[in-house]
Amino acid sequence: MRPRLPFLSSLYPFARRFSTVANLPPSSVNQYDVIVIGGGHAGSEACAAAARTGARTLLLTQNLETIGELSCNPSFGGVGKGVLVKEVDALDGLCGRVSDLSGIQFKVLNRSRGPAVHFIFFLLLLLSTHLHYQGPRAQIDRKLYKRHMQDALYSQPNLTLRGANVADLVITPEDGTDIGAEGGRVGTYGRVRGVKLESGEIVIAPNVVITTGTFLQGEIHIGLKSYPAGRMGESPCVGLSKSLQMAGFRLARLKTGTPARLDGRTINYVGLAQQHGDVPASPFSFLHDSVPFEFQQVVCHMTRTNSETHKIVMDNLHQSIHIRETVKGPRYCPSLESKLMRFKEKQGHTIWLEPEGRYYFLVGEECR
C-alpha cells in the first residue's frame, strides 16, 4: 500500500518534513511533464510553449470556458508593450496571432515621433520590412479573442485542458537542510513533485508553473467595499497562497486599477473626437500580412475632462478605498482620481472610449 503523501497545508509551517513521491508508477494517468496553473495570458502561453517542446502538459484552471478571458481593457500592444507582443510572437507564442484574428481596430502609436523613440523597435525588427512598427496597438473583441485562444489550445498536441481548483502543492525535501535556532528548517525549499486538487486527487509532474494572476488570494475593491475574488464574479485561489507561504516564500500584494465599463447605448457621442484605425492595418504577428477586419474597423472616441469633472471627483475622494489607504492610489493603470492628485496643475486629462467588441454594447473608459 502506497504511503500517504504529505501536503504543505497539512504541515506545521516550520517543520518542512516532506516525503518523496519518486516511487510512483511512471505509467500513472495522472502524471505529466509540466503542470500549468491558470488559463489567462501567461498560462495560455506557458502551456502552449511547453506542449510545443513535446512535453506532456496539463493546464489546470477553475473554468474551461474562461480560458483566454481578457480581464481588463481588451487591447494589446502600445508604446513599450508592443515590443513584448512582438517578442512573444518571435518565440512562436500565441497572443500576437490571436490578436490579429480578433482585433477590431489597429493603430500605430507615436508614428510621428523621432527615431530615438523607436530605437528598441528598430533593433527588434531589423530583419523585417515593416519598420513602421514603432508602437503597434490593437483594440480586441474580447469574445473573439477568447474563442480563438481556446481553439488554439484545444488543437495543440501534447496539451490537456482540465477544469479544476488546485488546493495544495506536493513538495519533497532536499538533503542537507538544517534545523534553525528556533526549530524551523532553513536552507533549500525542496522540490515540487505535483499538485493536489480540491477533490483530493493528486496530479504528479516534476515541473509546476503558477500563472494564477489576480486569482492568487486576490481581492476586489469597489468604492469602500472589498471582498475576495479573482475576477468579478469568480472566486480567488486561496489554498495555493497558503502552500507557498508554508514552503517559505514571502508573498506580497500588487495593486492595479480596472476602468469602469459603460453602456455604449447611453453615451452621447456628439462632439467627441473620432479615432479611426490604420489602413492598411499593421499585424502583430510576423506570420500575418493582413488582418480579417482591416476594412471593418470600429471607431474609438476621445474626449477630455474639465474643471467640473475634476470637482466631482475631488469632492468624492473619500469614497475611494485606494485613496484612503494608499493616498496616491494604485501604481499601475492609475484611476482618474489618482491622476488628479498627482497632476493637479493639469486642466484636463484625456479620456478614451473604446468598444469591447464589434457587436457588444459595453465600452471601456481609459484615462491615458
Provide tags for this entry.
single chain; about 375 residues; alpha+beta; FAD/NAD(P)-binding domain; Elongation Factor Tu (Ef-tu), domain 3; 2 domains; five-stranded antiparallel beta sheet; four-stranded parallel beta sheet; 19 strands; about 20% helix; disordered N terminus
Structure description:
With 368 residues, this protein is an alpha+beta fold. The chain folds into two domains: 1-256, FAD/NAD(P)-binding domain, CATH 3.50.50.60; 261-367, Elongation Factor Tu (Ef-tu), domain 3 (Beta Barrel), CATH 2.40.30. Helix content is 21%, strand content 23%. It is built from nine helices and 19 strands. The longest helix is centred in the middle third of the chain and has 13 residues, at 142-154. Residues 1-27, 127-133 and 176-187 have low confidence and may be disordered.
What does the average pLDDT come to? 80
In CATH's first tier, which class of the largest domain applies? Alpha Beta
By DSSP (H or I, 4+ residues per run), the number of helices equals 9
> What would you report as the Rg, rounded to the nearest angstrom?
24 Å
Terminal Cα separation, in Å?
A: 61 Å
Order of helices and strands: EHEEHHEHEHEEEEEEEEEHEEEHHHEE
CATH superfamily of the largest domain: FAD/NAD(P)-binding domain
